[in-house]
Specification:
single chain, 4-stranded antiparallel beta sheet, 4 strands, globular
């Protein structure tokens, strides 16, 4: 079963699951995200590429390239005698970490991608009408994504006060953010600023960062960055998404 827990220093969260859990999640990510040949939803390609960054870590975790955790499976010596077999008493689980601002972005982006999948499966633009469509209601892809989101939601709920959580859940489930229009450099900026905080500052900033993501279009910092990106794109004659600013590189070592 997929679990999501805060890291010790609240730098981010740890996603943990067994081999099958992670494989199912990777398949769900690849099915949900928008490919380059999907002309109808081409505006969501760059957002999908960003989300696939989390998928990349999950896939490599399932290959043993991240952390490995041994988890008790309830097996006892008496049970082994009863079944006349010798089996391990622990299961192998895999885990990877994701920075808090990035995870918040991914959860919101997945909401938008789930909405698109509901439209595709049901043929209805109003996703509320399509939620219980026969091709949607038990869709395995949506179920796997929603379970990951629910685990992250529980993680945040245990971290924030009830009042702060109420504000947070309203922000992260907003339907009018147009997140697919946000250039990824803004998220790089938020991730780096969050990394520079101490644990206490991070806990207090979760709701603030969520607001900066969900309401990015009115944030002065975003507006300034957006102007600089557009100017650089014109000067260099390349897409905004290809621009890289100095100082937005991720630290080589993160004290999770």
């Amino acid at each position: 079963m997929i679990t999501v827990e805060n890291t010790d220093n609240l730098a981010g969260v740890t996603i943990c699951g067994d081999y099958e859990d992670f494989n199912n999640l990777v398949d769900a990510f690849h099915t949900l995200t928008i490919s380059e040949d999907d002309l109808k939803y081409s505006e969501y390609i760059y957002m999908s590429i960003r989300v696939l960054g989390l998928c990349y870590d999950i896939r490599h975790a399932s290959q043993g390239d991240r952390e490995v955790v041994l988890v008790d499976n309830g097996m006892t010596s008496d049970c082994m005698v009863w079944h006349e077999m010798v089996v391990p008493k622990k299961n192998v689980y895999y885990s990877c970490n994701c920075m808090y601002p990035e995870m918040i972005y991914d959860m919101m982006a997945l909401n938008e991608l789930v909405r698109i999948r509901i439209e595709k499966l049901s043929g209805q633009k109003n996703t509320n009408d399509g939620l219980f469509h026969k091709h949607v209601v038990w869709d395995e892809v949506i179920a796997n994504i929603r379970f990951l989101q629910s685990q992250f939601n529980n993680c945040v709920k245990r971290t924030l006060t009830p009042a702060a959580y109420a504000r947070w859940i309203n922000l992260i489930t907003s339907n009018d953010s147009d997140l697919y229009k946000m250039p990824g450099q803004y998220m790089d900026l938020l991730n780096n600023k969050y990394h520079e905080m101490d644990k206490g500052e991070r806990e207090k900033s979760i709701s603030v960062i969520t607001k900066r993501i969900s309401q990015y279009k009115t944030n002065p910092e975003y507006i300034q960055l957006s102007r600089e990106l557009e100017d650089a794109a014109v000067k260099l004659n390349c897409p905004v998404q290809k621009i890289r600013f100095k100082g937005l590189e991720y630290p080589e070592v993160i004290k999770w």
